[in-house]
Write a structure and sequence with these properties.
Elements lengths: L1 H14 L1 H14 L8 H5 L2 H14 L5 E5 L4 E3 L2 E3 L4 E5 H6 L3
Antiparallel strand pairs: 1-4, 2-3
Helix pairs in contact: 1-4
């Protein structure tokens, strides 16, 4: 899966040159003189982390749905969901909802 996620990240960076440039500038500012990437360096690159997490959000759904069993009656707004009902959550739609 790492290769799949890396491929999506590289594809998205290639498609969004402005984001690629910001990531590149952040990496250059943190890693100087050929420094290696380590945990401390990664903590200093919040924009790179945000870009990575956004690529995971939009392209990593392992399946289209997650199911959950309601253990106790649940009120969601004006809808009452009884105990024992199986709920199907469409993760793709959640990750791509503009709101």
């Amino acid at each position: 899966n790492l290769s799949k996620y890396s491929s999506w990240l590289l594809y998205l960076l290639a498609r969004h040159q402005d984001v690629q440039e910001k990531v590149r500038n952040e990496v250059k500012a943190v890693l100087q003189n050929g420094d290696a990437i380590n945990y401390d360096a990664m903590k200093k690159m919040p924009y790179l982390e945000q870009v990575f997490l956004e690529s995971l959000r939009t392209h990593s759904s392992p399946s289209g749905f997650v199911t959950r069993l309601v253990e106790n009656e649940l009120d969601v707004g004006c809808v009452k969901i009884p105990e024992g009902v199986s709920i199907i959550i469409p993760t793709y739609l959640l990750h791509h909802d503009p709101e």
